[in-house]
Design goal:
The protein has 221 residues and is α/β, with parallel strands linked by helices. The chain folds into two domains: 4-95 and 206-220, Rossmann fold (3-Layer(aba) Sandwich), CATH 3.40.50.1860; 97-204, Rossmann fold. 48% of the residues lie in helices and 17% in strands. It contains eight helices and eight strands. It has helices spanning 13-25, 48-64, 81-85, 95-106, 117-134, 146-153, 157-172, 204-220, and strands spanning 4-9, 30-35, 70-72, 92-94, 109-114, 139-144, 177-180, 200-203. The strands form two sheets. A four-stranded parallel beta sheet has the order 2-1-3-4, sandwiched between helices. A four-stranded parallel beta sheet has the order 6-5-7-8, with helices on both faces. Helix 3 links the parallel strand 3 (70-72) and strand 4 (92-94). The longest helix has 18 residues, at 117-134. It starts with a strand and ends with a helix.
């Protein structure tokens, strides 16, 4: 039987991005993509139960469609994985957890770049929790651009990319590892040649799709 994986997205722009990388890394795997752009981005405590319920519903749909593993691509919902997992029998992974864990593997001076407060909060907390569990001390520095997020929402990519690129260049001066947990901002990496990077940059899309494949492989083995 052909293997199948599910991806749950909070923004439609993530679909094409993840489709392309999944087709490259695991072309033999069928993908199920589910999108709900109406999920509240955890702006306050009252919105959390609604976000959990809707993410559980989408994950359940993916499971019903035959997905053997589900990946939550929006970083603002990364810390909901344990609650989402309760609703399905298949493993649930999140982009932000994967990126944060890898960052702790690579260094103790870590930067987090994002355009949404939920991304910064989720990634920073997971990095600190992962480091604590390992008995490792890390320093986390963050850069947030709400203006870039607003530009993304109106699809003003030129403004978005300029703002994000400036933050990335600043952050690379201060840390050893930069986590880019939001798939939507990875596009700026094309403007930063690898030879000119002053820090390790973790692109979350490729990393998380590879971990998704690894999980599928482990289930098959």
């Amino acid at each position: 039987m052909k293997r199948k994986a599910g991806m749950v997205h909070g923004v439609n722009t993530n679909v094409a991005l993840f489709k392309a990388v999944a087709a490259e890394i695991m072309p033999e795997v069928d993908m199920v993509h589910l999108v709900d752009e109406g999920i509240p981005f955890l702006a306050d405590a009252k919105s959390r139960p609604l976000a959990v319920r809707r993410m559980r519903t989408l994950s359940s749909f993916a499971e019903e469609s035959g997905a053997q593993v589900v990946l939550i691509t929006c970083t603002a919902f990364g810390r909901l994985v344990s609650e989402i997992q309760e609703a399905v029998k298949v493993p649930v992974l999140s982009v932000v957890e994967i990126a944060a864990t890898e960052a702790v593997n690579l260094g103790n001076s870590i930067g987090v770049l994002g355009t949404h407060p939920g991304t910064i909060t989720s990634a920073s907390q997971i990095i600190q929790e992962e480091a604590l569990a390992r008995g490792k001390k890390v320093e986390v520095k963050t850069r947030l651009s709400a203006e870039a997020f607003a530009a993304l929402q109106r699809q003003d990519w030129d403004t978005h990319d300029k703002l994000v690129l400036k933050l990335l260049n600043d952050l690379m001066q201060e840390v050893k590892v930069v986590v880019i947990p939001q798939p939507s901002i990875e596009r700026v990496l094309k403007q930063v040649p690898e030879t000119g990077r002053k820090a390790i940059i973790l692109p979350s899309v490729r990393l998380s799709v590879q971990r998704l494949k690894d999980k599928l492989d482990s289930l098959a083995g």
